[in-house]
Design a protein that fits this description.
The complex is a heterodimer of chains A (307) and B (237).
Chain A lengths: L3 E12 L2 E7 L2 E3 L3 E5 L6 H8 L7 E6 L5 H7 L3 E4 L11 H12 L4 H10 L15 H14 L4 E5 L7 H18 L2 E6 L2 H4 L5 E6 L2 E7 H7 L2 E7 L2 H10 L6 E4 L2 E4 L6 H10 L4 E8 L2 H10 L6
Parallel strand pairs in A: 4-8, 4-9, 6-7, 7-8
Antiparallel strand pairs in A: 1-2, 1-3, 1-5, 9-10, 11-13, 11-14, 12-13
Helix pairs in contact in A: 3-4, 4-5
Chain B lengths: L1 H11 L3 H19 L7 H7 L6 H19 L3 H5 L5 H34 L8 H32 L2 H21 L10 H8 L7 H25 L4
Helix pairs in contact in B: 1-6, 2-6, 4-6, 4-7, 4-8, 6-7, 7-8, 7-9, 7-10
The chains are: A alpha/beta (307), B mainly alpha (237).
């Protein structure tokens, strides 16, 4: 069932005459991992801050769990865990006391749930060490601990892997995947590190200068970013017959004197051998395709990302 | 609301700064009493306690720093707001926490002041019912002026964000505004200042309590509304 957890309708945020977010429409399905991709200053954080109620919306409408009234939004935000920009906690309290402080605020002062969540993010052995002396990775983990502490149904994470080392990034990714798969938590995550998002996201929205450029599902994006073997020949009709008849290939397309081969891409010498044996001249054979990065850059530049 | 206040007290009771204040301020009160050992009496010290009423307002920025100032400075306020806590509720809870902590410190200061005086000074003429009623009424009235000053301090912290600037502005408004008003030939407004209320409360003759309460209430309403408006517009991350 496609229940929408988040819907924004023509949401705008202006700071004076500067539009940080313009006419933003996004729809986040329940159970999805929705990636917001954009350069620094694209408007990702501003959008997430509006969703979390940290900054007022200039115009437009936000709906969370079907609620869009200010009072309703305040109520359902208790079902949301968020980590916007760098995690902020009181520097003179330990990880446990910081969570306890927020638990008291939220009326959920359960010692066991604090211990469980600290264990879940690997901070159960920090003891009385103050938050002020935590490493960036530990601070990020505590931020995630707070986000997931109240059995949140929706996680809003703003560049959560910034500043983490490769090991930390991997652990963080695994935690998010576990939360999504095992607990069915919907995740809205922003980043400009595309490689990382591509390993977890089910939906992608590309934004630039505060505007939504495109939305793709993971399948659509994979389709657009697939790679192929480009084979330039002198006789396209004869070449396609050879590929079909001799090599049994079916997944290829022809245009002009170029063939785009989408199977057996690790065997270019086989193709060259078979074609030259049949008297076909092969001018060029190379692997081509559009990477996720290239797709994003093309979108930003207004290029033809569908090519 | 109660949960937010409870959490605030949990936080502040984990701060060494609070315990330092709790030790130093009553210590100063005890010192004042000890300096009167040559000829001073408990009755005189009781009567002079009205001069102490000026000091809580001077210390309020220290308390608002502990409750709301550090939340802005450390940006931890976002943890509360993104959970769906209304900004009005947040501001009100912080105000009540400030008042509770202020009351604890004031009680400690007055407790040590009167206790030390009772222990080390002779009784003197004795505290009459009239004198006791006068001092207690003054303390009650000073409490309302202090609440208005606390809201002003919270408003300034919300507007400026930077603690140093807010503290500077607070002391400027509280202690220099009468001079500024005179400079701009607006001396007719001086009676409506908080500083004037504190001066009248520590004066020899009993002040017009109705006027003190009205000025406190109006100041409170203006800065509370201003603080809420500023907080509603504030970017939290």
């Amino acid at each position: 069932m496609n229940t929408m957890i988040i819907e924004t309708r023509s949401v705008c945020k202006k700071y004076g005459s500067f539009s940080a977010v313009s006419d933003m429409d996004i729809r986040v399905r329940k159970g999805s991992v929705y990636a917001l991709i954009g350069q620094n200053g694209a408007g990702k954080t501003t959008l997430l801050k509006m969703l979390c109620g940290l900054t007022p919306v200039t115009s437009g409408e936000i709906s969370l769990f079907g609620e869009c009234s200010p009072r309703g939004l305040e109520k359902v935000r208790a079902r949301t865990g968020a980590m916007i920009e760098t995690p902020a906690f009181l520097p003179y309290l330990s990880a446990k006391d910081n969570l306890k402080y927020l638990c008291i605020q939220r009326g959920e002062n359960r010692e066991d749930s604090i211990n469980n969540v600290l264990k879940f993010v690997g901070l159960d052995d920090t003891g009385k060490k103050h938050f002020g002396s935590f490493s960036l990775g530990m601070k990020q983990r505590l931020g995630l601990a707070l986000a997931v502490m109240d059995d949140a149904e929706l996680l809003i994470l703003d560049e959560p892997i910034n500043g983490l080392d490769p090991m930390g990034i991997r652990e963080f990714r695994d935690i998010i995947l576990r939360l999504n798969k095992e607990k069915g938590i919907t995740v809205l995550i922003s980043s400009h590190i595309l490689g990382e998002l591509s390993q977890i996201a089910t939906d992608y929205s590309f934004i630039d200068h505060g505007r939504l450029l495109r939305h793709d599902t993971a399948t659509e994006l994979m389709e657009k970013c697939r790679s192929f073997l480009r084979i330039d020949v002198d006789d396209i009709a004869k070449a396609s017959e050879v590929l079909r008849g001799t090599l049994g290939c079916t997944k290829f397309t022809c245009s002009g004197n170029t063939i785009h081969m989408e199977e057996r891409m690790d065997e270019p010498e086989e193709f060259v051998q078979a074609l030259t044996k049949s008297g076909i001249a092969v001018f060029q054979i190379c692997r081509e395709g559009i990477s996720l990065e290239q797709y994003f850059i093309d979108l930003i530049k207004g290029g033809n990302a569908d090519a | 609301m109660l949960r937010l206040i409870h959490a605030d007290l949990f936080k502040v009771f984990h701060r060494p700064a609070f315990y330092i204040m709790l030790a130093v301020l009553p210590g100063l009160a005890a010192l004042i009493v000890m300096m009167q050992q040559d000829g001073g009496t408990f009755t005189e010290m009781f009567s002079m306690s009205r001069f102490l009423l000026v000091y809580p307002a001077a210390l309020l920025p220290l308390i608002t720093q502990l409750t709301i100032g550090e939340e802005y400075r450390e940006r931890t306020v976002k943890n509360t707001i993104e959970y769906g806590t209304g900004r009005g509720l947040y501001f009100s809870a912080k105000l009540i926490s400030t008042v509770i902590l202020g009351a604890i410190l004031t009680a400690a200061v007055f407790g040590v002041y009167f206790g030390t005086a009772a222990l080390i000074l002779p009784v003197g003429d004795g505290v009459t019912g009239v004198l006791a009623a006068d001092i207690l009424t003054r303390i009650g009235a000073a409490f309302t002026v202090c609440v208005a000053a606390a809201v002003m301090s919270m408003f300034l912290l919300t507007v400026f964000g930077r603690s140093a600037m807010a503290i500077f502005a607070y002391y400027g408004i509280l202690y220099l505004s009468n001079l500024i008003l005179v400079l701009f030939r607006l001396s007719s407004l001086v009676p409506y200042l908080l500083k004037t209320q504190f001066s009248s409360l520590s004066g020899r003759t009993p002040p017009d309590y109705g006027f003190v309460l009205t000025v406190s209430a109006v100041t409170f309403a203006v800065f509370f509304a201003g603080g809420l408006a500023a907080l509603r517009k504030k970017d939290m991350a």
